[in-house]
Amino acid sequence: MPFIIKIGNIDLSGRIDRVDQSVDGKIIVTDYKLSSAPGFEKQGTEVFQIPIYMSFFEGACVEGKYGFIKGAKVSHVIRNIDEIGKIKGARNQLSTEEFKDKLQESLDNALKVIYLMYNGIFDKWDDVDSRISDLARS
């Protein structure tokens, strides 16, 4: 599904691999990976893809996850347990407040990286390079 999201005064476009919507309007986004993906601790600080996808839906998205093609597995990356409950074995299950804070922090950090890109700051020895490539992939 193609999308455009405004972050600051920048329009960021991309394509979401899968969007599921329940009858009550709750949305879950899935990004498919071949075999591995970054975990929760990197979401919104080093990688932005899932949080940006989720933010596009302006509060309707309750979970972002990775689906792995090899091994047919799922990794629940960010999940709002107040909206859809806990599931056994899933880490990173957040209350609504924690969930909203995580998404906002992710957008704030993405905006910082976008402005670094805009100003031509591309120091390959700095961790900003991995963040730039992640935003470019989103």
List keywords for this structure.
two-stranded antiparallel sheet, hydrolase, 138 residues, PDDEXK-like_dom_sf, helicase, 4 helices, DNA repair, alpha/beta
Helix content: 25-40%
Mean pLDDT, nearest integer? 83
What structural category arises from helix and sheet content?
Answer: alpha/beta
Major sheet description: 5 strands, mixed
Strand order of the largest sheet: 3-4-5-6-7
Shape by Cα distribution: globular
Tally of individual domains:
1
The proportion of strand residues reads 25-35%
What is the tally of helical segments?
A: 4
Described by its quaternary structure, the protein is single chain
Radius of gyration: 15 Å
Note down, in words, how this protein is organized:
By secondary structure, the protein is an alpha/beta fold. The protein has one domain (2-135). The chain has four helices and seven strands. The protein has helices at 49-56, 81-84, 96-118, 128-137; strands at 2-7, 10-15, 18-21, 27-33, 61-68, 73-80, 93-94. The strands form two sheets. Strands 3-4-5-6-7 form a five-stranded mixed β-sheet. Strand 4, helix 1 (49-56) and strand 5 form a beta-alpha-beta unit. Helix 3 (96-118) crosses helix 4 (128-137). It is globular. The mean pLDDT is 83.
